[in-house]
Specification:
Layout lengths: L4 E5 L2 E6 L6 E2 L2 E2 L2 H9 L15 E2 L5 H6 L7 H4 L2 E5 L4 E4 L8 E5 L4 E6 L10 E4 L4 E3 L4 E4 L21 E5 L4 E4 L5 H28 L37 E5 L4 E9 L5 E5 L4 E3 L3 E3 L8 E2 L8 E4 L4 E6 L6 E7 L4 E11 L2 E6 L3 E3 L4 E4 L13 E6 L4 E6 L2 E7 L12 E4 L2 E10 L7 E13 L2 E5 L15 E3 L1 H10 L10 E3 L8 E5 L1
Length: about 525
């Protein structure tokens, strides 16, 4: 069952989410208020990683990211003379100078900003400060506020908000990949691997014993599989069953094959072995990860000659016939890239007794390899000039509108059978530059993806978001969320409301900051 819960890595909480309906934790339905409470309970970043060694950023040219998180320029400097930085992975921003059920958004650790004192200390011992970009923060509760600028120690690279992906990503090539709280030496690595082997052997023996002792009508029924140990508990310990071998304190998490981590930089251990530092401050051996190559596909910004309907291919290895636009004489065949967009001349064109989509340049596209993206009437309940997003599950397409005008069109991947995306009219509830998604109890196998980019929640745990781990947009794929290519998700994130202020990592919609409508049809 998909669910919201804290996942403890490197000694601090992250908001973990898996797309799905009816999200529960211990049988309790997760509400927006409970989600906010999880954010409210953010804790400080770990005190590990105090290394003087030089960490080489994985993203070499991140000047734009630095600019996006730098203090606001004048005249805000005069009105907001204080300098601040976020100290928590999730440092909360409030609508008013009170903390109860009042979260407006949050910043990520290391973010710099400008602020001014309000003179109010009620509920905040060190005093409330107003941000130049709106909202209020409690100094000392996830933030440091001073009269002079300063660089926070060991701050992660800021998200590259002007790029298709905010971070670099890598995925594990095998099971039981350790994450370390600090750069390990050879002895520490040996202790960790010995402990992991002992734990996995103990798990295997326990599973075998459960199968051998289970009784059923056919002489034996396998007991439910024991969930693998993944990461530390809030108490700083792994949630180990009674009798399990102890794991070393240096170990912060164990990743299974195919888990993704967001990466901050590279660093050499004293003996020369290369490690990668995650955005969350842990360390993973470089040879345990493969760097992700994200999809490069992009949708179409509509206007001029590009009007709906349009055709977008959704399969690779496609061969298409070209006809002379004037005479219909065949000009031969050509290869057509996946996710290439075409202007349509005739959506139902018959050629040699077969039906095709004929494009404006005379290309004949086979319908089974093509998605035709059409305009949809604005549904009741959406004001005449409002922004709204239409997702067609039948066509695996998305169109962004302003009133009746179609602004942008692309292909998506919605929920596959058993994980269907809900239909209906919704509104964006919150927007996050990135959010961790996982499900360690998934019937299809545990998964974990750190910092899923450009995440826009519209109904419970269902969201529109970028997907950098697959290339099959135009086909069902997800666990219920609506997947877009990273570039398309970023376009939608920037265009939709509520607008995310500079330096913020997330914002929640409310009456003063309503979210864009999301209309999903079968």
């Amino acid at each position: 069952m998909a669910r919201w819960r804290p996942v403890w890595l490197a000694g601090f909480a992250t908001l973990a989410l898996s797309c799905g309906e009816g999200a529960t934790e211990d049988g309790v339905t997760i509400t927006e208020e409970m989600r906010a409470a999880v954010v409210r309970d953010s804790v400080p970043a770990p005190k590990a990683n105090r290394t003087s060694a030089k960490i080489k950023p994985l993203v070499q040219d991140h000047a734009q990211a630095k600019l996006a998180t730098s203090p606001s320029p004048a005249p805000a400097e005069e009105r907001f003379p204080l300098y601040g930085t976020a100290d928590y992975l999730f440092a909360n921003i409030y609508r008013r100078m009170e903390m109860e059920e009042n979260i407006l958004g949050y910043m990520r650790r290391g973010t710099s900003f400008r602020a001014r004192w309000t003179g109010e200390r009620r509920g905040c011992r060190s005093g409330w400060a107003e941000l130049a970009n709106g909202g209020y923060i409690c100094s000392g509760r996830g933030f440091t506020v001073t009269t002079e600028p300063f660089e926070p120690e060991n701050a992660p690279i800021p998200p590259a908000v002007h790029d298709a992906l905010p971070y670099a990503y890598g995925y594990t090539v095998r099971d039981n990949v350790p994450q370390y709280g600090e750069l390990p030496d050879k002895q520490t690595e040996g202790e960790v691997f010995t402990a992991i082997r002992a734990l996995r052997a103990w798990e295997s023996n326990r599973a075998a014993e459960a199968v051998s002792t289970a009784v059923g009508p056919d002489g034996g029924v396998a007991a439910p599989a024991y969930a693998p140990v993944i990461s530390r508990s809030p108490a700083g310990l792994f949630n180990l069953p009674e009798g399990a071998p102890r794991l070393p304190d240096a170990l912060r998490a164990m990743m299974l094959k195919g888990f993704y981590v967001s990466l901050d930089g590279a660093i050499a251990a004293p003996r020369g072995d290369m490690f990668l530092r995650t955005v969350r401050g842990t360390f993973v051996r470089q040879d345990d990860l493969i760097m992700n190559t994200p999809p490069a596909s992009r949708g179409v910004i509509l206007g001029g000659d590009w009007q709906l309907p349009i055709a977008i291919t959704h399969r690779k290895g496609m061969r298409a016939t070209r006809l002379d636009p004037a005479t219909n004489a065949p000009l031969g065949k050509e290869s057509v890239d996946r996710h290439r967009a075409f202007r349509i001349a005739q959506p139902d064109f018959i050629y040699e007794d077969r039906r095709y989509v004929r494009t404006a340049d005379g290309t004949l596209l086979r319908p089974e390899m093509t998605r035709v993206v059409r305009a949809t009437p604005r549904p009741p309940g959406i004001p005449a000039n409002a922004k709204w997003i239409h997702v067609s599950l039948a066509d695996q397409s998305l169109v962004a509108y302003e009133g009746e005008k179609a602004m942008f069109a692309t292909l998506v991947s919605s929920g596959k059978p058993g994980f269907e995306t809900p239909t209906g009219l919704y509104r964006i509830q919150s927007k996050q530059v990135s959010a961790t998604m996982d499900d360690f109890a998934s019937p299809e196998g545990a998964y974990s993806i750190e910092d899923v980019p450009w995440t826009m929640y519209f109904h419970g745990n269902f969201a529109l978001h970028g997907a950098f781990w697959h290339y099959t947009f135009g086909n069902v794929r997800s666990h219920g969320c609506v997947n877009l290519s990273p570039a398309d998700a970023r376009w939608l994130f920037e265009w939709s409301t509520p607008s995310l202020p500079p330096t913020w990592h997330a914002i929640y919609s409310d009456g003063a900051r309503p979210g864009t409508f999301v209309y999903i049809t079968p």
